[in-house]
Amino acid sequence: MQLDTDKILATAASGIGTLVFNHPEKRNALSLEMWKGIGDALAAFNADPEIRIVVMRGAGGKAFISGADISQFEERRSSADTAAEYNAITERAWSGLSGLCKPLIAAIEGFCLGGGLAVAMKADIRMATKNSIFGIPAARLGLAYPTDSVRDLAALVGPSEAKRILFTGTQFDAAAALRIGLINEVVDDGGLDAAIASLAAILNDNAPLSMRAAKETIDQIARGRVDMARLNELATICITSEDYAEGRRAFMEKRKPRFRGR
Asked: Which of 4-8, 73-77, 174-178 has the highest mean pLDDT?
C-alpha cells in the first residue's frame, strides 16, 4: 500500500493488514505525517473485504509509540489555523481507530507512553513483551489527557487504577499492565511475532460478520450508548448470511468451516 510518508508502513497478506509505526530514531513518536498515514491506512484496510484482521506495531524493537512528536508543536500547533489543521488530521486517525469494523490487535514491544498508550487502547486485543513500559506523563507536562482516552483507560482498568496512572504519571512494566487489565497477554521478549501469528490465525478462521457484531456490541456497551436497532441489524446480517449456512453445514459434516464474510 502506497502512503504519503515512509514513517507509516501498511501491508496486507493472507487476510491480515499490518500497520507499522516506522520512526525508530524517535522511538516512533507520532508526527503529523504519521497521523495522516494512520488515517489513510486504516481507511484502506476498512474498505478492503480481503482483510479480516489489522495488527499495529512499532518498528525498531524499542517502542510501540513513545508519544506525540512534541518537537513539531511549535510549528504545527502555534496558531489557530495550524492547530485546526493538526486537529483535523489527528481526528481522522482517531476516527479510523475507533471505527475499524475488523479486529484490531496492538503488538507492543518497548515504550508505550502517552498518546501511544491512547492508540494501543483503541485496539481490541493488546499483547506485549516483558520489556514493555507503559505510562501517561500528562501530569508531569501540565496537560489534560484527552477525554476519550481517559474513558478508554477507565473502562479497561477501572476508575481507581485510572486515577493512579494519571495522577502519578509514573511508568510501569508489562506485568503490572497485565495485572490491572490494561493488556491481555505478556509474552517473552522475542516471542511477539509468534504470539501474534497464532492469535491472527485463530481470528482469520472465524466468521468476520460474527466478530464484527461482537466488536460493535461490546464497544457500544462499554461506552454506555447502546443502539439496539443497530445491534439487531447486525444480528440479522449474521443469521441470514452465507457464513451462517456454511457454519451449520461444516458442523454437520464435521469439517472446518470456510467463512467468506458474507
From this structure: 174-178
Residue-level length of the chain: 262
For 161-187, letters b (16+ CB in 10 Å) and e give bbeebbeeeeebbbeebbebebbbebb
For Cα atoms 156, 22, 9, give the angle at the middle one, nearest 5 degrees: 95
Cα–Cα distance measured from residue 5 to residue 2, given in angstroms and rounded to the nearest whole number: 9
131: CB partners within 8 A, 6+ apart: 109, 110, 174, 189
Residues 216-259: pLDDT tens digits?
999 999 888 899 999 999 999 999 999 999 999 999 999 899 99
Q: Residue holding cell 481526528?
A: 91
Q: What does the pLDDT read at residue 68?
A: 76
Residue 57 phi, psi (nearest 5):
-155, 165
Element (H, E) at 232: helix 228-239
Sequence-ordered list of residues with C-beta below 8 angstroms from that of 233, at least 6 positions apart, any chain? none
Q: Quick check: pTM over 0.85? A: yes
Q: C-alpha grid cell for residue 130?
A: 516483558
- Domain at 8-203: CATH code: 3.90.226.10
What distance in Å separates the CA atoms of residue 82 and residue 78, rounded to the nearest whole number? 7
What is the residue type of 241?
S
- 56 closest CA partner among 15, 26, 11: 11
